Amino acid sequence: MKKILFALALASASVASYAQTDVPTVKYSVATNSFWSNWFVQAGADWNAWYSGEEHGSDLKKSPFKKFRTHPGASVALGKWFTPGIGLRTKLQGVWGNTVRSDGQSHLNRYWLLNEHVMFNLSNLICGYNENRLFNLIPFVGGGVGRSMTYNLYSMDLSAGVQAQFRICKKFAVYAELGWNRLESDIDGGTISDTNVRGWDTHDNHLYAELGFNYNLGKATWNAVPDVDALMAQNQAALDALNAKLRDAENENANLRNQLKNQPKVETVSQSVKELITTPISVFFNLDKIDIASQKDLVNVRAIAKYAKDNDRNLLVTGYADSATGSAAHNQELSENRAKTVAEELQKMGVDASKITTVGKGGVETLSPVSFNRRATVQVAE
Fold first, then answer.
1. DSSP 72-128
2. What is the pLDDT of residue 9?
C-alpha cells in the first residue's frame, strides 16, 4: 500500500511539473479579445503637399518639396485591432495646407480630412503574431470626407498609405507614415477648365509624410490558442506514465504480500500473557474446606487454561494448607484434595487430564495473614 501511495505522490509531482511547462499552441492562431481590448490612439506631425486639378497645363513644378505646394500639418487618430492582423482607424488630419494656383504662388488653405482606414499588419499576417516584435509594417486603405474651411467646400475622398511602426515598450511605439488622399471634387477653391482631362490632374490630391507616436489603451496583447490535440496527446502520455508507475507499484506490492505470506510465523507473546505464564494463579479456600471459596478466582484460571489448550502446554496445580491448624498428615491430605478440585475445574474448561499434574505441599506458613496459605496455584509447567 505504501508503494502505491508513493507512486501516486510521484505521479502528482510529475503532473504538477508538467502543468508548469509551456502549453502547446496553434501557430498563427490567437483567442478573440473583448471589445475594450486592443484600442490605440495616435498623434503625429506631417509635411503635406497638394496637387490641384486647376494646375493642369500650367507647367508648374511637380516636386512635393516646392514651397507653393507644401505646408506642415498635424493629425490624431483612434483605432482598434480586431485581430493581430486587421484593424480599423479613424483619422483626423489637416489644419494647414496650400491651394495650388497656376501663378505658382502660395495660397493658404485651412482644411481637415476625416478618414476611416482598414489597416493590415503584414508582419503579423505573414510572420505570425509576436507581441515582442520590434517592427511592424502596416499598409492601409479607406475613405472619408474633407472640408476646406477657407473656401467652405466639402468633398468625399479615397485614402491609402503605409505605416512603419517601431515598438518601444508594451504601451508605446513610434511610427513613420506615407499617405495619399484623393479628393473626388474640388476642395481647394480652384476648378479645372478642361473637363476632358482624366487621371491625376482631374482631382485635388493630398500627399503627406508623417512622424508620430502610438499609445495602446488597456490590454494590447493577444493570447495564443491552446493546441487541443497536442494537449490531449501530452495528457495521454502523462496518464500512460502514471498507469505504468501504478502497475509497477501494484506488482511490487503483490510480491511483498507473497513474501510476507511465505515467511514463517513468529510467535509473539504479549506482556500480559508473559505474566500469565510465569506467575502462578491462586485459588483460595475456606478453613479445612476443599470447595473453592469464590468463583471469581476462576477468571484467571480460565485464561491460563485457554493458553494451555491453544499452545499445547502442560499445567501444574499445587495445593496448600495453613500449618497453624490441623496436623501435618491432615494438612497434606487437605492440600492434595484442593489441588484435585482445581484440576477438575481445569478439565471442565477443556484441558486434557493428561496435561495436568497435581501436587500437595501440606501445611505452610509462607504467606501472611495465615488464611492466604489456604489455596491452590495453577501455572504453566516448564
1. EEEEEEEEEESSSSEEEEEEEEES-EE---TT----EE-EEEEEEEEEE-HHHHHH-
2. 52
